[in-house]
Specification:
The chain has 165 residues and is an alpha+beta fold. It is built from five helices and five strands; from the N terminus they run ααββαβαββα. The chain is globular, with a radius of gyration of 16 Å.
Length: 165
């Protein structure tokens, strides 16, 4: 019965596809500042007992929903997950498919001293779900950030359209 109810809720979410509240083109400086602040605040939730490099990500959907993620390490390393992918997988598992921006920060022992860029695997996951103009905000402080588009960080990326006949 729970399976049936979950499928009904997913179908309802898909049927209620809302018009975009925010897009990569309409993202404001205030929204960027808010995402930066949330990213900095979330770094404490990282689980990085091996590398001691903590990363926090805040993903903004076009519907205005926010999904957070943190890096979660594992002693075997391979099962570890980056903050960006954590946020994306949470969002996608909730039925979200359209995204405007992601803000991320990182630093040794959770102290942010410089900009933190997404790894190649995370860029590829972004490529799966995002448009080329999707904004990636690398945060140093609430007032210091750099904004890139996905196409700037992953030019000539491989995506779903490459598998269409």
């Amino acid at each position: 019965m729970a399976y049936y109810a979950d499928n009904i809720r997913k179908e309802e979410r898909n049927m209620e596809k809302k018009q975009a509240v925010v897009t990569s083109d309409t993202l404001t400086k205030e929204q960027i500042r808010e995402l930066a602040a949330k990213s900095l605040a979330g770094i404490k939730n990282s689980y990085a007992p091996y590398s001691h490099f903590h990363v926090s990500a805040v993903l903004l959907s076009e519907n205005g929903n926010i999904y957070t993620g943190n890096n979660i390490e594992n002693a075997a390393y391979t099962p570890s997950v980056c903050a960006e992918r954590c946020a994306f997988f949470k969002a996608v598992s909730e039925g979200e498919r359209d995204f405007a921006a992601i803000a991320l920060c990182g630093g040794l022992k959770g102290v942010v001293k410089d900009y933190c860029a997404p790894c190649g695997v995370c860029r590829q996951v972004m490529r799966e779900f995002c448009k080329p103009d999707f904004k990636i905000i690398m945060v140093k402080s609430e007032e210091e950030w750099k904004v890139y588009t996905l196409s700037q960080l992953l030019p000539e990326g491989f995506g779903p359209e490459n598998l269409r006949a």
